[in-house]
């Protein structure tokens, strides 16, 4: 068996011991790769965050918490954000109406305290009912682990490096069996039950969804009404539809202005290219004319030389 490398590029290699299962009665070694988090858009927590890739498909927060506790002790690990959770792959439909999505960037005031908490509760109630007691991750998926501080993140990387000397690899899932739902047949049985929820619960989720949807649509309509006839930075109001009775909102006016500027830039570019084409053609014509004159002069010189060769002065 080839030795396990300590690092690959910027990643340190963390071997995990996967215990034998009834479905596969053989212990195996699984490798995950860890490095300091360095996203394209930096955040204040990057220094104390770790980017983890190739996490096992049955990973949960309890699994990762137990893993980091085995490496650096308790109190160092804060939270984990898996790839599907970061990209918003949850089973939640878009509650944002089209008009509200266009005008959300223009809102300068947000409700606070009780009103904001009430909205959060409504949105939580509008989520679709879960059909799995425990999610499975995509093979080779990633996660970002948030540690207590930058020192904790550095200690994790050092602890992983030391593992290659001791060869005592952490056992995956050790100590979390009572904290997460079981996999296997029990997991499938629970899915079969959750896939057919009570009609009352489904109706409640649907009602909550439309409550949130209608509220946002109403807020968007009121915002559009307030923004009507509001001039842009140049002091103009662009009407794109509705005429005098329904002038466009600021977002629609800005969209129309951008389209007009893009159209003018395109026209200007085409005109510039046209003049360049004319310039090239004119240069080609001038060059052809020079070559023609040169050829004519060359023929005249040749004729003069030929005539001079035949000339014989009288003795």
UniProtKB/TrEMBL annotation:
Gene3D superfamilies linked to this entry: 6.10.250.1770
A single cellular component GO annotation: CURI complex
Residue ranges annotated for the Ribosomal RNA-processing protein 7 C-terminal domain, each copy included: 195-314
Start and end residues of each stretch annotated as Disordered: 88-124, 233-254
Pfam families hit by this protein: RRM_Rrp7 (PF17799), RRP7 (PF12923)
GO biological process: ribosomal small subunit assembly; rRNA processing
Ranges where the Rrp7 RRM-like N-terminal domain occurs: 9-191
Similarity comment: family membership: Belongs to the RRP7 family.
Designated name of the protein: Ribosomal RNA-processing protein 7
Naturally occurring in which organism (per UniProt): Thyridium curvatum
